[in-house]
Amino acid sequence: MKKQLITFASLWVLALCSAVEGQFITGILKEKTQVQNNDSITAIAPASITRTIKQDSKGNIWIAAFDGVFKYNKGSFKAITATVSNARFFSVLEDHKGNFWFCSVGAGVYYFDGTAFKHFTTTDGLANNRTIEIYEDKAGSIWFGTESGASRYNGISFTNYKMNGGVPGSYVQPIIKNSAKAIFPDIVTNGEIAYKEDNDVNSIIEDKAGKFWFATRGNTCTYDGKTFTTLTHNGIPFKNVRKIIEDSKGNIWLGGNDGLWRYDGKAFTNFTQNFVGYIYEDKKGNIWISTETAKGQSWSLLRYEATSLLSTQPTVTAIKANERMIFGIAEAIDGSIWFGTMDGVHRYDGKSIIHFKAEKKDK
After folding, report:
1. What is the number of structural domains in the chain?
2. How confident is the model over 283-300, as pLDDT tens digits?
3. How far apart are CA 31 and CA 12, in angstroms?
4. What is the DSSP letter of 125?
5. What residue numbers bound the domain in which 8 lies?
6. Strand extents, DSSP E, 282-336
7. Is residue 221 situated within a structural domain?
8. 28, 199, 238, 250: which has the highest count of C-beta atoms within 10 A?
């Protein structure tokens, strides 16, 4: 069946940037910074760029940030890596055995069984020590997205994969002052940002059929266990995709340089052409994204309502606007939505947004 391209109008952008309710967007909520619901912070919270947030099988919230890995439970943050490494951390994963993996920027990968750490680097076979993604496949192998391709760890050794040609500086753009795009893993030279390699892996998933999807700074590819195939729409490859997810209905969502896209196995649907940094599906089937709404200046957290996703005019709710950048998004067991920014972690309870400040608060 011939692929169809459906592009939704972006009339909501001006409404979002001015915090005025638009045709398809409900209002932007005001942020509250105080700790509510009797929560108290008894340890220092993340204060730097917060890239990934996950909830583990016991209900703890794990946070990978540029000032360490933190665990949050019952109002208290614990700095997990403070005595182990001063690296900037990018991602966190709990595997099926209940052990944890942390990706770092330049220091490789850390494994944590709850008591002791193990450290893996290129010396052990990792493709590159600059790692930004962790994923566990159905067979229990752990995949790492690195600056030089993907590394798969089977519990004994690493196998490394390259999807593209590995062309240095394959994606170049001028630096915009205060732009969030000037943040790792971009390489800055002569006033421009040059991504070091088009095998720089941002996101990895295995779909329900067992096919792997790799989003890189170059092309986005699928992998059937033997061959990498470049994903295209109308003959044009998806480049610099930052996040891929498979939703509860089996649709594949892509977010990155070309905006937000959904692929149902036959046709592509485009929801916005603004840059998208992260995608998340909540328990109700709503799709959450972080997106750049004013180029180089402002990011927003948006929710696409599940009941309207098949409409040509989907309902989009603006939850947070005017951030320099918004990163990982996660839903906790209680239904609250957590997300990271340039200065730490935030929680949205459906009514207000709490910014967990990097300071001690008394009970």
Report:
1. 1
2. 999 999 999 987 777 999
3. 21
4. T
5. 1-32+163-172+201-342
6. 287-294, 298-304, 316-323, 326-331
7. yes
8. 199
Residues in the chain: 363
Q: Which residues contact 246 (CB under 8 A, 6 or more apart)?
A: 205, 207, 208, 252, 253
Residue tagged 């309870």 (tokens): 349
Q: Is residue 100 in a domain?
A: no
180 falls in which pLDDT band (50, 70, 90)? very low
Residue 131 lies in a domain: no
**pLDDT (average), residues 335-351:** 96
Query: Which residues are registered as beta bridge partners of 261?
Result: 254, 270
Residue 29 has pLDDT above 50, yes or no: no
The Cα–Cα gap between 178 and 188 comes to 13
| Burial class of 43 by CB neighbour count within 10 A (0 to 12, 13 to 18, 19+) | middle
Q: What integer is the mean pLDDT of 184-208?
A: 68
- C-alpha–C-alpha distance, residues 338 and 51, integer Å: 11
**Bridge pairing between strands 221-223 and 228-230:** antiparallel
Residue with tokens 């920014």, as numbered in its chain:
341
Residue 175 structure tokens: 């630096």
> How crowded is the C-beta side of 234, counted as CA atoms within 13 Å?
6
Contacts 24+ apart (CB under 8 A), 156-159: 157/125, 158/120, 158/124, 158/125, 158/126, 158/127
The separation between the first and the last C-alpha atoms of the chain, rounded to the nearest angstrom, is: 61
Residue 8 tokens, joined:
């939704």
- Sign of the four-CA dihedral 137, 68, 108, 194: positive
Give residue 167's pLDDT. Answer: 57
Task: Say which residues have a Cβ less than 8 Å from residue 123's Cβ, sequence separation at least 6.
Answer: none
Q: Which residues contact 190 (CB under 8 A, 6 or more apart)?
A: none
> In the structure encoding, which two tokens stand for residue 324, read together?
């320099």
CA distance 40 to 246: 35
DSSP string, 63-83: EEETTEEEEEETTEEEESSTT
Is residue 300 domain-resident? yes
